[in-house]
Amino acid sequence: VTDGGVRIDFGSSKIAVVKIGADWCGPCKVLEKELETMQLAHPDVAFQKVDLEKLPSEDRKNFPSIPVTR
Fold this sequence. Notes:
Largest sheet: 3 strands, mixed
Shape: flat
Structural class: alpha+beta
Strand content: 25-35%
Number of helices: 2
Number of strands: 5
């Protein structure tokens, strides 16, 4: 599945949580810790993180603020 230029790989899961952020983003780091806890509690859910800085510039405009979860 592609959302805003980000490829989301569900694997064998029916649910995926995708965090879009950046290394320099303080709120992204806080959210990252929460998602790591959730990942341990929900091994049946596919958790992915996307570094906004690594996306092509035309795809970055789809995410005007970070962090974003979808």
